[in-house]
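Provenance and format

Records in this collection were gathered into a single text stream. Each protein contributes a sequence line and a token line. The two records reproduced below are adjacent in the stream.
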Amino acid sequence: MEGVGADGVGSGTAPANQFWIDVSRRYQYYLDKTTPHAIYRWIGSAVIVLIYILRVYYIQGFYIISYGLGIYLLNLLIGFLSPLVDPEMEVSGGGGPLLPTKGSDEFKPFIRRLPEFKFWYSFTKAFCIAFVMTFFSMFDVPVFWPILLCYWIVLFVLTMRRQIAHMIKYKYIPFNIGKQKYGGKKASASSSGSRGD
């Protein structure tokens, strides 16, 4: 009797669970394959953003969703521009600043609090969720959108001003300007060629 009951319960839930586990693994597999292709990922996200903007413009509604999306994206941007360990907290903790503050300090690479891949993933997922929400009329709350836009712009300017002041104070740049190039063999070959003459 016990074997029949266990099989009955297991056979009903196991295939459903296995299906979702397989879907999750396949999704993660394809997501992992996109990791090195940053440019293509961001192009795809730009297409999703454009589709969302066209949808909101065409419907002339869902401004509260767009405002909430803007606040969420601002929060993501702050995490993307911030170091993993805040130097202000590290200084007060007594361990000394994590980022170099003087030219004589040891070089320490900038490590983001929110890595680029997670930033992209959260950014894209937020636009997809907001796009799906535009199909439900209960989320179309009537608001005067220019006030929301002005408030978001003020919030963005104040937040970025504070973030830029933080970058200047602790002397870090959260972007890779480009890969540093070294002379290597070309420089040594040209110098040895000039010695032979």
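Adjacent record:
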Amino acid sequence: MSAFPDDRYRPVEHYENFPVASWLCPPRLRRPIAAIYWFARTADDIADEGNATEGERLADLLTYRNELAACLAGNSGSGRWGNLFAALGTARVEFALPEQPLFDLLAAFRQDVEKTRDRAGYRDRADLVDYCSRSANPVGRLLLHLYGVTDAKSLAQSDAICTALQLANFWQDLSVDLPRGRYYLPAEDCRRHGLDPSRPRSWPMNPNAPQLVRELCTWTRDLMLSGAPLVHRVPGRAGWELRMVVQGGLRVLRRIEAMGHRTMQRRPALGPLDVPTMLWGALWM
């Protein structure tokens, strides 16, 4: 059964800077990690891809949530996204996955739909971090659960890394998100740099825009580094996987810096030549 039974949510080729279930991941965890990623990626596409209306997206996210609830109750595999929830149900039973992070992700995707271009933007950094607490942090917490790391300090460090990764993606994707009506620059920061939060189409032409992006990247880098000690608390190959994820996020920020923080004009990308630098950084963490 396809995850997308009609053309309203036609899958796109997703650009990802960060590895998912890579060869560094412990083999026994690849299936549950892939199931979690499939669940999150599909919900994200319902919220953000294709030509469905806002009402259709919200209705389908509700159906998706109901299928998640059925899956967690032990009744998966027969709904619209049967194969997906069958895989997630297997992972949930085998690894006793916590339920709340899965529902938090869906709440974030609903928020994505509701923040249309007519009701756009985030008030300040705290407002944006609150969104990331549902859109990004649950994935890190689910992965830590799989790794058997559940103490409060590790969860806080994971949240810092995941929020920083989300923010790094926002700052690198400005040239793509702005035309689509996705506005993640905090209004408070925009005003401080002379950008009108109510006129996002004017942002790319504002000469202060690169300085704003630079400041946000510095904040994001500090946040990433505050969570980086978690790599020493995650065991074995998973710890090395996390090192590469952190280095990938830091490398994106360096790429943004190298282009003068002008990501409202174009998006940077990581390539094979970045891998040695990331490996070297991972080795010395």
